[in-house]
Amino acid sequence: MTTPASVRIDFVSDVSCPWCAIGLASLQQALATLDGEVAAEIHFQPFELNPQMAAEGEDSTEHLVRKYGSSADQIDANRAMIRERGAALGFTFNMDRRSRVYNTFDAHRLLHWAELEGLHIALKQILLRAYFTDGEDVSAHDTLVRLAVEAGLDAERARQILAGDEFADEVRAQEQFFQSRGIHSVPATIVNGQHLISGGQPPEAFEQALRQIVAAA
Fold first, then answer.
1. Under a CB-based contact definition with an 8 Å cutoff, are residues 189 and 197 in contact?
2. Half-sphere exposure (CA, 13 Å, Cβ side) for 82?
3. Tens digits of per-residue pLDDT, 123-157?
4. Phi, psi angle pair for 40, to nearest 5°
5. Could you tell me how many helices (H) and strands (E) the chain has, helices first?
């Protein structure tokens, strides 16, 4: 029996990025197809789309108009496309519930801790669902503690991390490292530290790229 090829995947993303939710679902679908061929170790790397976002957040439509100069029609068309892409992957985008954009720094701090506990994939998926499907405020500490518990993490430890600035330096260092490597938009999927797959690609694109990387190695 052939031993699967081991790969390291650094998935650079933000929990408030719809294309990151699509990209992760696509990547995981590709890895399920490649089961037995490729054994992937996934590490989530932090990226903040809106690092200066105030605590109260901002209306999501107003934010898109201000940040990208998008018209209402462009925003609606983009949201419809995101909904369709998500649905095809089994991920539900309820854009009517996701009415605000929030600061995600504390969510990234919890994800950093979750990786140390081996529960980062569970927490990441829960955070994406909480924001895009359920429209929750993923900057609110009570919400983050509840979601951490859902992922299997300890409530008191989560509360303790959020109350201070634990893992803040580590998150900032990782953000700066990947930006220094030229990552300025997400999702960015980096395989074995050198192969970049940009954007929320379909599962077939991830599958093909991973096969090529493994074959070349």
1. yes
2. 21
3. 999 999 999 999 999 999 999 999 999 999 999 99
4. -105, 140
5. 9, 6
